[in-house]
Design a protein that fits this description.
The protein has 14 helices and 9 strands. The protein is an alpha/beta fold. Helix 9 links the parallel strand 4 and strand 5. InterPro entries: Methyltransf_25, Methyltransf_Superfamily, SAM-dependent_MTases_sf.
């Protein structure tokens, strides 16, 4: 993938090396939230999976058996559980995404993330004369869709607080902050490695009137105050999520938004002719690094948003590969 990116003038190796050889590692202590693993408010359950006999398996759910198989094979056998569902969410994040053995929980994945994002944009607009032109279309149309939806259905309400769920290394957060400079933007992600890179890069950039805040949390259960944001955005995340996580993310976005607030999702479009016409080889390759792609395409996102309580739901194709779905929390 990196050699392909460099053919389109994306310096993948150079960008990765620059991060890995920097002082980005110093950001981890201020970013990492240990409650992701050990939330104090949940009851403690200690299980030694290795000691469970086959006769005991009948009392375990399919999800617990999945945990047992994965953890013993990869990490060990004795674990402190605070919530079975949250443990599953951690396993999802540890799964091999984007061909990284450690999923998104690694410095290499974090160091390569921005170059990978650039490559995605170039693939979306292959005829663009430059990366900047491609970004103007991909990012520009996405941001305009958010702005237009909010203006149309929120009575031109002030945009004071924006949450970017699954912000990765902060690329989408920076675009949101540039588009809405008077707003306070918060980037949230489950990977402290991604957030460390996001914070490191933001510190090196020109200071903002409203600095971006970075939060290490699970987007399905952020623990942030209800009705505290005017816009909640999820960019290029849902195609990496199982159906149950998509539903939880939609519900959490509804909880976090103020009345009149706008929810915006941009991601692969099931109706994209380009994606529909991918060769079997390319589609198989894409699925091999995106384990939940089928679940994403089979999920009725607009329907799930309506069930969660959103109104004024709109879907537009913002570039040849991606759709932006927007909805409003009713007053």
């Amino acid at each position: 993938m990196n050699s392909t990116a460099e053919k389109t003038n994306i310096p993948w190796r150079e960008m990765t090396r620059e991060i890995l050889e920097s002082e980005v590692y110093k950001e981890m202590d201020s970013i990492q939230n240990s409650s992701i693993v050990y939330p104090d408010s949940w009851p403690i359950l200690v299980i030694d999976f290795a000691s469970l006999t086959p006769s005991a398996y009948g009392r375990l759910s399919a999800e617990a058996l999945e945990i047992r198989t994965y953890l013993i094979g990869n990490l060990g056998s004795m674990f402190v559980f605070y919530d079975l569902y949250t443990c599953l969410a951690v396993i999802d994040y540890l799964n091999p995404f984007h061909a990284y053995d450690e999923g998104n929980l690694s410095w290499l994945a974090a160091a390569e993330a921005e170059a990978a994002t650039m490559s995605m944009v170039r693939r979306a607009i292959p005829d663009a004369s430059s990366l900047d032109e491609a970004n103007q279309i991909v990012r520009g149309n996405w941001l305009n869709a958010i702005e237009q939806h909010h203006q149309q259905f929120s009575g031109n309400a002030m945009i004071e607080n924006i949450l970017d769920i699954g912000c990765s290394v902060g690329v989408s957060s920076r675009y949101l902050a540039n588009k809405f400079p008077s707003a306070k933007v918060t980037g949230l992600d489950l990977s402290p490695y991604f957030l460390a890179v996001a914070q490191f890069k933001e510190k090196k950039s020109t200071p903002r009137k409203n600095p971006i805040s970075w939060v290490h949390a699970n987007g399905e259960d952020t623990r942030l105050p209800a009705q505290s944001f005017d816009i909640v955005s999820i960019a290029y995340v849902l195609h990496e999520c199982p159906a149950r996580a998509i539903l939880n993310l939609v519900k959490e976005a509804f909880r976090l938004l103020r009345p009149g607030g706008t929810f915006a999702v941009t991601d692969n479009s099931p109706k994209s002719k380009i994606l529909q016409e991918l060769s079997p080889v390319l589609f198989t390759l894409m699925k091999s690094t995106e384990p939940f792609l089928d679940e994403y395409y089979l999920t009725d996102l607009e329907g799930k948003m309506k069930e969660a309580g959103f109104v004024n739901i709109q879907t537009i194709l913002t570039d040849p590969r991606h759709r932006t779905v927007t909805g409003t929390v009713p007053y």
